[in-house]
Amino acid sequence: MTFEDWFRTDRLPHIYCAGCGNGTIINCTLSAVDQMGWKKDDTVFVSGIGCSSRAPGYIVTDSLHTTHGRALAFATGVKLANPVLNVVVFTGDGDLAAIGGNHFIHACRRNIDLTVVCMNNQIYGMTGGQGSPTTPWGCLSTTTPYGCAEPAFDLCELAIAAGANYVARWTSYHVKELEKAVKAGLETPGFSFIEAMTQCPTNFGRRNKFKQVADQVEYIKTHALLRAKRDRMIEQGEKVPDDFFVIGELMRRKRPAMGVKV
Amino acid sequence: MKLAIDETRCKGCNLCIKVCPYKIFKEGKRPNRRGIVVPELDRPERCANCRLQHLYGRRLCGVCELTCPDQAIHWIEEQPYEPMKVAIEY
Ligand SMILES: Cc1ncc(C[n+]2csc(CCOP(=O)(O)OP(=O)(O)O)c2C)c(N)n1
Ligand code: SF4
Ligand code: SF4
Ligand code: SF4
Ligand SMILES: [Mg+2]
């Protein structure tokens, strides 16, 4: 079997813009799910609203495409009602960290046995490119026409502080690593959070001087800092540049979890 | 195994060109029927997966397949007795 078997091929090609990283993240997630050997009948995908949240519509299993920001609330219900199900959540930065921020921290605190894949394109893609809580400082969006003047959320730090059992961040360039991280998340009992930094060429790249899709992917690649390297830089007293972000496995622990299959 | 791009799915983003370590994909020249410039394949028989998948019994490399946001990259089996090029890497 390959990840291709999990797609509703009659629904492809999907609606995502050319070069949108969401498709890549879905591939990596489905590839990890495929390696788990789960039955399609026992697997549920849940999402909120956004481009990223359209993902479950292209997957053959049962799924819930819920209201904006509420994916985790619905997923909590599914998992606690029937812990036998394997529940995977697709969400976006706006969906998870803006309108759904409270559900996020409490799902981490409760440590519910879910795997959450957040496609962080640092923008509200679906609604035309408004700034989100993860839009980096100085970046242009329709609501930050002079450059974003707010500091951005670090979603992984947030998940760690709130109590998630597994936290990792990769990018749409690091496909193999992302696939492995999602698999590790699926294997971990308790809340697993995988943040995938990705490109939105239409609403982020276009406004922020990335003419080609590959330019933005290159930017993401060159501004990703491996955790070990970051730690080494701090040890040696070097300053980590502000526009860099850390990638790698950031947390793995065994806090008590809810909804774990017995 | 033979590498192929599904023209009905490809949206011409050229990300496959960026990620393949063998530089097998190169920019296409002409738009197809759907108005999309699909990348061309440059000696695809060099692809690690094309050459070695059967020997190892698993997917090798496969980075282009995972990266392609539009699920357009596949491998297809050759027909029996289909003429094949043999790639030699120095
Ligand atoms: C209650 C509610 N408020 C606002 C919206 C409008 N809305 C739809 S998608 C979206 C933002 C999605 O952003 P994100 O989660 O980052 O997804 P992306 O499209 O970037 O993948 C908003 C504000 C809505 N659908 N429902
Ligand atoms: S608007 Fe952005 S996130 Fe939405 S499909 Fe297009 S590229 Fe992807
Ligand atoms: S990555 Fe996929 S969609 Fe993009 S150009 Fe290559 S084959 Fe086409
Ligand atoms: S599998 Fe690897 S070597 Fe083969 S075409 Fe794809 S990226 Fe290139
Ligand atoms: Mg977004």
Describe the overall structure.
The complex is a heterodimer of chains A (262) and B (90). Chain A has one domain (20-252): Rossmann fold. An eight-stranded mixed beta sheet of chain A has the order 2-1-3-4-6-5-8-7, with helices on both faces. The model of chain A has no long low-confidence stretch (mean pLDDT 97). Chain A has helices at 22-35, 71-81, 93-99, 101-110, 155-162, 175-187, 201-205, 213-222, 227-235; strands at residues 43-47, 62-65, 86-92, 115-120, 166-171, 192-197, 224-226, 245-252. Chain A contains nine helices and eight strands. Chain A has 262 residues and is of the alpha/beta class. The two termini of chain A are 27 Å apart. By secondary structure, chain B is an alpha+beta fold. Chain B has a single domain, classed as Alpha-Beta Plaits. Chain B is 21% helix and 13% strand. Chain B has helices at residues 15-19, 48-56, 63-67; strands at 2-5, 25-26, 40-41, 73-76. In chain B, the strands form two sheets. Chain B has a two-stranded antiparallel ribbon with strand order 1-4. Chain B has a two-stranded antiparallel ribbon with strand order 2-3. Chain B is globular, with a radius of gyration of 13 Å. The two termini of chain B are 21 Å apart. The model of chain B has no long low-confidence stretch (mean pLDDT 91). The A-B interface holds A 2, 4, 7, 12-14, 16-24, 27-28, 31, 172-173, 175-176, 179, 201, 212-214, 217-218 and B 8-9, 11-15, 17-19, 36, 59, 63, 65-72, 74. Magnesium ion is lined by residues 50, 92-94, 121, 123-125, 132 of chain A. Residues 50, 92-94, 121, 123-125, 132 of chain A line the site of magnesium ion.
Offer a concise description of the structure.
The complex is a heterodimer of chains A (262) and B (90). Chain A has 262 residues and is α/β, with parallel strands linked by helices. In chain A, 33% of the residues lie in helices and 17% in strands.
